[in-house]
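Dissemination and training. As part of the outreach component of the grant, students in the summer workshop were shown how a complex can be specified as a set of sequence lines and then modelled as a single object. The example used during the hands-on session is reproduced here so that future cohorts can follow it. Participants entered these lines:
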Amino acid sequence: MMRREQNELLTRTDAGTPMGELFRRYWLPAVLASELPENDAPPVRVKLLGERLLALRDSNGQYGLVSEFCPHRRVSLWFGRNEDCGLRCAYHGWKFDVKGNCVDLPSEPEDSLVRERVKLKAYPLIKVGKVLWTYMGPPEHQPAPPAFEFATVPDNHTFVSKRWQESNWLQAMEGGIDSSHVGWLHKATIESDPLFSKSVGNKYTLEDSRVMFEVVEQPSGLYIGAKRNAENGHHYWRITAWIMPYYTQIPPRADHPIHGHFWVPMDDENCWTWNYDFHPTRPLSAREVQVMENGEGIHCKIDPVTFRPLANKDNDYLMDRESQKSGRTFSGIEGFAMQDASLQESMGPIVDRSREHLVATDLGVVLARRQLLQAANALAERGAPPPGIEPATHLIRSASVVLPPGTPFMEGARKALTVREGRAHTSV
Ligand code: FES
Ligand SMILES: [Fe+2]
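and obtained this result:
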């Protein structure tokens, strides 16, 4: 059980809060590169850590992330004109570059000092893979660019999507490291979904619901091992990787692409769920890309402007009681993404963790919370650099393996848990 004040600390991410300051030390996925497809593309609204921002790409291809509101009379610059290396406010024509500098202030004399004083708040925005990343912390602590494998493999090996989730970031992230729900909530879907089906691991997942957990703490996060029975006394291990505070990688199945998520707060009651799928050693097939675009696997069908899922709380996630009854799906809701999101959003915008009853299968969740609390407090009290900001710590993988009885997974699967260039992920 968590104390109320610990829950508050972990779930509030505005500027000046301990968790907000922690998040501001990491590169955060901000927008898809495809949202700014060309120079002078229209600005894109994005809310991150409680701040309303605009992602920009100027006439020279420079990216930037700036405050949404014009310093003059506070209108939204989203209505502005993106032209000649700057965004010009639609109201009185003040113009700003991607670094937030005011480069034209037509209502004032040329030498007016006002121009110096009206800078927009601005953050760097860089392209790594198919994602534009931002860093919202103190400039002197900006880490080297992120090195997550899905973002560094060739573009045709990887697929990235995002969706708006109407809950606090932490209850969403906790779903990503809670392997014990897979054999229940996703019961039928792991066999029917084209990006999960035909794995021997599915049989073990479905046949053994008494999952045993072993969690190994790493300097930058956790490996969470879920152990189920396989044949001849052997064990099927699904090992999830978590990097502080926001990155999870799901154990793979067969030769399907390996996948996972980022969970990034929009504000305290909403988050961005980023979904990536990639294969380390081969391009994704046309069929795989097609089903991902169609919202299968860990992706889902969304409104292309707001990124809100088409199945959402206003329509009860298109719940189908007949499908629930027949077992075509376990919960009556289609697809992994909305099976998860429906339940996580059902907890309310910020779940009250002081009222939970945790059991042994929640060990990963418990240890992740502990690491987050320690890191946020260490940063607030001593300025200690948070774990997981160094690119070298991003080079990890999840894995699924069958190991002989009595073998700790860190021993039996050690090599499988790090990125080995030119080698595929380890999966059964
Ligand atoms: S409100 Fe933007 S220029 Fe006046
Ligand atoms: Fe799930």
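Residues 363-382 form the longest helix (20 residues). Students were then asked to discuss how this feature might be tested experimentally.
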